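Why show two proteins at once? Because comparison is the fastest way to build intuition. When a single record is shown, students tend to memorize it. When two are placed side by side, the eye starts asking what differs. So, the first record is below.
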Amino acid sequence: MSSLSFLLVDDFAAARNQLRRLIGSTPQWRVVGEAENGAEALQLARQLRPDVILLDVAMPGVNGIQATKQIKKYLPETLIIVYSAYNTHLISKRALDAGADAYLNKSDLDRDALVAIINH
């Protein structure tokens, strides 16, 4: 598995900490930035050009779906994995329609799921 850079986007610091530990469990993966909302995510994505963005749906201001659409315009090659605690078909459809490469329920967000999506 090649080296991958990640941008973590969640309005809750505890969630970002958990994701940082998850990414840190794989030596070839590294977190290059963290954002608390979609507007910060867009700015950091342009600046850092990460390989993968893990992006929560529900955030104040620019939400994850809006951010996905904007980021994909500038960085179509970046893999965006949108996640949410709400597992509804409508949210996943909106995320995928916005350009997300995958949608996961927050409870399914683990190393195995990330490896499967990245290697797809």
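Second record. Ask yourself what differs from the first in the token line.
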Amino acid sequence: MITRQMIEQIVQEVIKQLAANENHQDSHDKPKLLVIGETSFVEPDYLAKMKTKWDIISDNESEKVKWDQVDQVLILHATQDLLVKGALGIFDTRESKLLSCCLLESIPVTMIPTVFLEKQLFNRTTLNKPYVLQLQKYKEQLENFGACVETWGNFLTKSEKAAVPDQEESITEKKKLISQRDIQDYKESIIVVDKDTIITPLARDTARELGKSIKVIEVKGAEK
């Protein structure tokens, strides 16, 4: 005999499943951001802002990174040691190896320096200018390699702008499917597509290899 309690339980399970599917779909639509470093020290407001743009993946040191599932990498609390090693091509720690991998594979990577290092890199007033100038040269060298060394404020500002589609931004080409050949043919460094466009895994890999980024936007007024 089916009781009221059984019916309520079934309804609750259905609601949970629908919510899980919706969250999964939302995560699927967002680009994957691999975060390297301890996030417990990050301001909750910062994490909330990041989640509006990214599907955040936390680094698990016991597992091998699946680079084909990562769109961008964020290294938190980047130290002077990592800055110098990255600029000189030294990779003898997990962080320096991951940074080297990003540079070699042309995977977009952003480094957020420690509070102390940030003051040295972005503050013009310093006691030992020659020494700090050398550190700034290492920063510039990393940026020449394709890395981005910036403050939390700059990173979040860019994330917030990217999370809100530009009304004047136009889709590169309206296609239901983006293939490897399409990526190779596009001259643009940023390829803008509709959120319903299917992008093949090989196309994503090719975009990384060519240093191109794929931006997914939702077109307002589109037919449902």
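One difference worth noting in the second protein: The domain at 30-160 is CATH 3.40.50.1950 (Rossmann fold).
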